[in-house]
Write a structure and sequence with these properties.
Blueprint: H1 2-18, E1 23-30, E2 36-43, E3 46-54, E4 59-64, E5 70-76, E6 82-87, E7 91-97, E8 105-107, H2 110-134, H3 136-149, H4 154-166
Parallel strand pairs: 1-7
Antiparallel strand pairs: 1-4, 2-3, 2-5, 5-6, 7-8
Length: about 170
């Protein structure tokens, strides 16, 4: 009896260790007939197809293994554009429309979630920069006499603009 329990325990542990991590990519694409989705990665000089699946009733499923998280592109055969996202060995869900797949959404990839938060931070910084650039004509006009009286570097110019935008009473 002991030998049977130990053997069963060893088999269960070996089976658990032998299970290879994999990704499962499931998706819903509205407006698509029985078309083929292609999962591909960028290589020097073009793309390499990783896998493909047929869309049935607007859904598809692709399974596979990647060695590390990497950027891939999901497209529909014969159509331009596609959805770029980070794939990793996890359950990933994609939702989009056949005519605008590049605007689709991705969930289930931790790397993609980090990338999305990074892009959101860049958008905030871009908005702040745009706000500062809108002040440029005003400050150029205001600082023109100063710039004509003595040379001012571009770095000093931006430092002055930044200081005055943070301290408007000065």
């Amino acid at each position: 009896m002991k030998k049977t329990v130990i053997l069963l325990l060893v088999v269960v542990v070996a089976a658990a260790c032998a299970r290879e991590p994999k990704f499962t990519l499931t998706g819903t694409i509205d407006g698509a007939g029985n078309e083929t989705v292609i999962l591909q990665k960028r290589i020097p000089g073009g793309y390499q197809v990783i896998d493909s699946a047929t869309i049935e009733n607007g859904t598809f499923k692709i399974e596979g293994v990647v060695d590390y998280p990497q950027m891939v592109n999901l497209g529909i055969r014969g159509k331009r554009g596609g959805l770029s996202f980070y794939i990793e060995n996890s359950d990933i869900t994609v939702h989009g429309h056949a005519d605008s797949l590049y605007m689709g959404s991705v969930s289930g990839s931790a790397t993609q979630a980090e990338y999305d938060s990074y892009k959101a931070l860049l958008d905030v910084a871009r908005q702040e920069w745009t706000g500062m650039r809108s002040l440029l004509p005003h400050w150029k006009k205001k600082l023109k006499p100063l710039m004509q009286s003595r040379p001012i570097s571009r770095r000093n110019f931006w430092q002055i603009i930044l200081y005055h935008s943070l301290h408007p009473r000065s």
